[in-house]
Amino acid sequence: MRKLTKREFIKIGAMGVSGVVFMPGFLGGCRTMPKVTVPSWVWYSGGRDEKKIKKDLRFLKRSGFTGIHFQGGLEQVKTASSLAHDLGLEFHVWVISLMARSAKIVKEHHDWYMISREGISIADHPPYVGYYKWLCPNKTEVVDYMVKRVEGLASMDHVDGVHLDYIRYPDVILPVGLWKKYHLVQDREYPQYDYCYCDDCRRKFKEQEGVDPLELPDPPKDKAWRQFRYDSVTRLVNRLKKMTEKYGKKLTAAVFPTPDIARKLVRQDWTCWNLDAVFPMIYHNFYEKDIDWIEVATREGIEALHGRYPLYSGLFVPAIAPDKIQQAVDFAMKGGAKGVCLFNFRGMTEKHWRDFLD
Q1: pTM, whole model, 2 decimals?
Q2: What are phi and psi of 127, to 5 degrees?
Q3: Which of 40, 84, 200, 268 has its CA 20 to 30 A from that of 355?
Q4: pLDDT tens-digit profile of 166-176?
Q5: CB under 8 Å to 289, separation ≥6 — which residues?
């Protein structure tokens, strides 16, 4: 049998992930097949089509991927994690953490949600979009809820780790590239976007610092109040890390692109977290940056971590032209990344795959 050209292989692979059945015998007979050139992960939303999930995971394995952050229902997680285990793909369950849009949780646990500096519950009046409803990490009930969720996933067979997303506060300032979309100019921290001022946060901060945050002369500029909120997320993450360690599993997180941006926009001090790896979402277009910013942002994260754990640069596929995808990877690796992670599997076109795989 003749060898497939790179173009022919990608075409077959793309057909497979879009619904046409793979031909294992045909592909298996090829001596050389294009594969990723660096350690690569992908964010993957599973859906309910188990046949499709199986095809996609086989394609990722054939393409040389390291692992997958998988989002789906429990049955899909069981099926996908078992297949990933058999294939040798590392499998982490992708968890939407502190953002909780469930009508059931809103109804039964309304008091778990954050309160703005204006005194309004985010459950009743979410900023930006209707689903932006966030739980407060300073509430014991919320911490217990998150620990229980993570334990349930970490205890599952064939699950290698838990991947935390939305493990932060809501954006007090949106990335500048999104201002036009929401018809905003956020030149400072406005009260309606500033969280959390619930009774628990106010009480705990007053016990720690001797003052109610609402009585501060200028809450956004108060260093202790900022640090209090950084620490509230850090404590939660580190508590979850102990739970995953209990089951011999890993804990990773999707975070904002650089340590400074993460602290400023979403109270996320991720260089202080206990993790096994971090996946900054270096979505250059959100910040009106050129593609070479991927290298700059990656390097900032690497230098701040001081080798504590590996960093994989998250790449926003819709903002990267197919013929630039390999350039984006190169910038990440020049910045010191361990590898890359694609957002997301569905966004990769045949042309993207052709240039991404070597």
Answers
A1: 0.91
A2: -80, 155
A3: 84
A4: 999 999 999 99
A5: none
Instruction: Lay out the sheet containing 312-316: strands in order across.
Output: 277-280, 250-255, 161-165, 90-96, 67-71, 40-45, 339-343, 312-316
Q: How many Å apart are CA 225 and CA 82, to the nearest integer?
A: 45
Contact 277, 309 (CB under 8 A): yes
The answer for residues whose C-beta is within 8 angstroms of residue 347's C-beta and 6 or more apart is 317, 318
Q: What is the pLDDT of residues 274-303, one digit of tens each?
A: 999 999 999 999 999 999 999 999 999 999
Q: If you compute the radius of gyration of the chain from its CA atoms, what whole number of angstroms results?
A: 21
Cα–Cα distances in Å, from 240 out to 11, 45, 59, 144, 256?
Answer: 42, 23, 32, 10, 19
Counting Cα atoms < 13 Å in the Cβ hemisphere of 329 gives 22
What is the SS3 assignment for 117-170? CCCCECCCCCCCCCCCCEECCCCHHHHHHHHHHHHHHHCCCCCCEEEEECCCCC
Model confidence at 48, pLDDT cuts 50, 70, 90, reads confident
Question: Who contacts 296 (Cβ-Cβ below 8 Å, separation ≥6)?
Answer: 335
For the chain, what are the domain ranges?
1-34, 35-51+93-304+321-356
Q: 343: which 2 tokens?
A: 């957002």
User: What length does the chain have?
Assistant: 358
Report in angstroms the alpha-carbon separations of 62 from 81, 96, 251, 337. 17, 28, 25, 23
CATH tag, 35-51+93-304+321-356: 3.20.20.80
